[in-house]
């Protein structure tokens, strides 16, 4: 009985520690490419990019699903093993974007997700926030100076 209890406790602790969030970084500039990178290669089953069209209102501007193992994704370039669901719209200066990925579940845990919020400055440079206050402003639809 004690072994069963210890096994149950151990499995509960292991499985509860399996929730995850994958940190993404974004870089690039217009008119060149914009890319999202991961700290290590990830098996993904979905990638999408939304554009903010007002506080709390996001519009999907690119979407792909399938199976791929990647360490970065360039906007509009479908990773091998995936198929595009929505043709990418052009990225615009002075707009806010949210890039997201989703990974499949594994034997040890549930699916994971990750994302990065960024904006394209007037000069075409991609910018990201380094503080929570900056991200709050972005999510409220205000591009930092």
Describe the fold and architecture.
By secondary structure, this protein is of the alpha+beta class. The protein has helices spanning 2-16, 132-139, and strands at 21-28, 34-52, 58-74, 82-86, 96-102, 113-120, 126-128. The longest helix has 15 residues, at 2-16. It is globular and about 45 Å long. It starts with a helix and ends in a 6-residue tail after the last helix.
**Number of DSSP helical runs:** 2
Give the rounded overall mean pLDDT. Answer: 86
Major β-sheet annotation: 7 strands, mixed
Number of domains: 1
The CATH architecture is Sandwich
CATH class: Mainly Beta
Number of strands: 7
Shape: globular
CATH-defined fold name: Immunoglobulin-like
Instruction: Provide the succession of SSEs.
Output: HEEEEEEEH
- The separation of the N and C termini measures 63 Å
In helices, the fraction of residues equals 10-25%
Q: How is the quaternary structure best described?
A: single chain
What Rg do the Cα atoms give?
Answer: 18 Å
Structural class: alpha+beta
Task: Give the low-pLDDT segments.
Answer: 1-18
Fraction of residues in β-strands: over 45%
Task: Pick out its properties.
2 helices, alpha+beta, seven-stranded mixed β-sheet, about 45% strand, Immunoglobulin-like
